[in-house]
Design goal:
- By secondary structure, the chain is an alpha/beta fold.
- It is built from 17 helices and 15 strands.
- It has an 8-stranded mixed beta sheet, sandwiched between helices. Strands 3-2-1-4-5-6-15 form a 7-stranded parallel beta sheet, sandwiched between helices.
- Strand 8, helix 10 and strand 9 form a beta-alpha-beta unit.
- The longest helix is centred in the middle third of the chain and has 24 residues.
- The protein is globular.
- The protein starts with 16 loop residues before the first helix and ends in a 7-residue tail after the last helix.
- The structure holds nicotinamide-adenine-dinucleotide.
- The site of nicotinamide-adenine-dinucleotide has 31 residues, from helix 7, helix 8, helix 9 and helix 14.
């Protein structure tokens, strides 16, 4: 809508743009599925003139998604979905080189973060693309006058989907949203292999700690927790899992991990990783018994999984030891370490997920956006799963891009699998 976008956006430093371009191109090498979608979008313009507010982690992978949407005709405003996850060079490249107004500065205050989001909605979005449902929440809470123009949206992560389902259950959701997280080609890979690798990457980059031989406690054995546990074991850690869900606890046990209540695990852990999407999962009773020197990191969406208010109350002094490493010196003499202020450690202290998994997550975003644009008049104000055919197509494209061939059913097998009469 806005012809002159050059005055919009708020980034750290325009001079970083060329670094950002190289980084975005580097990520693109591992995003062949999204590249195919971008090519088709450029030809078909399925999002022509669609005003989009995207609230996502501003990383090189997200930049590739933004370019696909832009080439598909969308008029985008991009704002950060976390104050610490922005790659400033990427933000600069998007803004300066690719003409996408971007509101994101790594380390911005909460006030700036909120202001950025507000400003990114000022063009009156017709479509929202969220990671954590913050834009949906903003529009439903304090910018309701904008709701009338919105035809639909997408949501990237587990926590956002939980919030949106709660909104829909109250009958308050005002437009249809596709839950990208629920696609198999998203959470099987992004949450598990992406979070598994990048969480350890964040911990290692921040601390340079040796994982081998450590007791690493994973709080929550969902998709992310499975990935973190699997990769930590691979690096030689003794992994302990804590859970509240009996099925998941059983799964962790049979996957070969020790399962303990958090207060027992707290006594043993050298490193703690929270990945629950739940609040205060490490709290004072656990802090009370932790070993001095224990390191805590969060890879769940919000920074409320480790109860930092309770920890602060037990603390005499705090100091930064290295970037993203803060020591809490407790009144009883022990010292506990918190990484990245309890925010997503993989995106704060490292670079988030590798591009190859984001290829699938963002292929889902792009195709779901196209789906909503085409289908919105047939959709209710509900949270929808990604249509199965989109999910299957992304898996097919990814396999093909990786050069992996699979078999197809013979006619006999098709018949057999579709019949009830045939048996022994
Ligand atoms: N770091 C990233 O880049 C990244 C990527 C994907 C998802 N996420 C976020 O990670 C979080 C987890 O996502 P997921 O897909 O694994 O969710 P999930 O629902 O599959 O798993 C969460 C698990 O945490 C468990 N849990 C809840 N409360 C607990 C408690 N008090 N103690 C122990 N376990 C508890 C649940 O029983 C569940 O098994 C969400 O906030 C999600 O948005 C982060």
């Amino acid at each position: 809508m806005t012809a002159d976008t050059t005055t919009l956006g708020d980034i750290r430093d325009a001079k970083l743009a060329q670094d950002g371009v190289r980084r975005i191109e580097w990520a693109a090498r591992e995003m062949p599925v999204l590249a195919q979608i971008r090519e088709r979008f450029a030809a078909e313009q399925p999002l022509r003139d669609l005003r989009v507010t995207a609230c996502l982690h501003v990383t090189s992978e997200t930049a590739n998604l933004m370019l696909a949407l832009r080439d598909g005709g969308a008029d985008i405003r991009l704002t950060a979905s976390n104050p610490l996850s922005t790659q400033d060079d990427v933000a600069a490249a998007l803004q300066v080189e690719y003409g996408i107004p971007t509101y994101a500065i790594k380390g911005e205050s909460i006030e700036t973060y909120k202001q950025h989001m507000e400003t990114a909605t000022e063009h009156g979005p017709q479509f929202t693309m969220d990671d954590g449902a913050d834009v949906v929440a903003l529009l439903h809470k304090s910018k309701r006058e904008l709701l009338g123009d919105v035809i639909g949206g997408t949501e990237e992560t587990t926590t956002g989907v939980i919030r949106l389902r709660a909104l829909a259950k109250q009958g308050e959701l005002r437009y249809p949203i596709v839950a990208v997280n629920e696609a198999n080609t998203k959470h099987f890979f992004d949450n598990r292999y992406g979070t598994g690798q990048s969480t350890l990457d964040g911990i290692i980059r921040a601390t340079n700690i040796l994982i081998a031989g450590k007791t690493l406690v994973v709080v929550g054995y969902g998709w992310c927790g499975k990935g973190v546990s699997m990769r930590a074991r691979g690096m030689g850690a003794q992994v302990v899992v804590t859970e509240v869900d009996p099925l998941r606890a059983l799964e962790a046990t049979m996957d070969g991990f020790r399962v303990l209540p958090i207060v027992e695990a707290a006594r043993e852990g050298d490193i703690f990783v929270t990945v629950t999407g739940d609040v205060n999962v490490i709290d004072q009773p656990a802090f009370d018994v932790m070993k001095s020197g224990a390191v805590m990191a969060n890879s769940g969406h919000f920074d409320n999984e480790i109860n930092l208010t309770a920890l602060e109350a037990m603390t005499e002094a705090r100091r930064d030891l290295r970037p993203f490493v803060e020591e809490y010196a407790l009144t009883d003499g022990r010292k506990l370490i918190v990484l990245a202020e309890g925010r997503l450690v993989n995106l704060s202290a490292a670079e988030g997920h590798p591009a190859s998994v984001m290829d699938m997550s963002f292929a889902n975003q792009a195709l779901s956006a196209e789906y909503v644009v085409n289908q919105h008049s047939n959709l209710e104000n509900e949270v929808y799963d990604v249509p199965r055919d989109i999910d299957d197509e992304i898996a097919r494209l990814k396999l093909a891009a990786m050069g992996i061939k699979i078999d197809t059913l013979t006619e006999e097998q098709e018949r057999y699998l579709n019949s009830w009469e045939l048996g022994t």
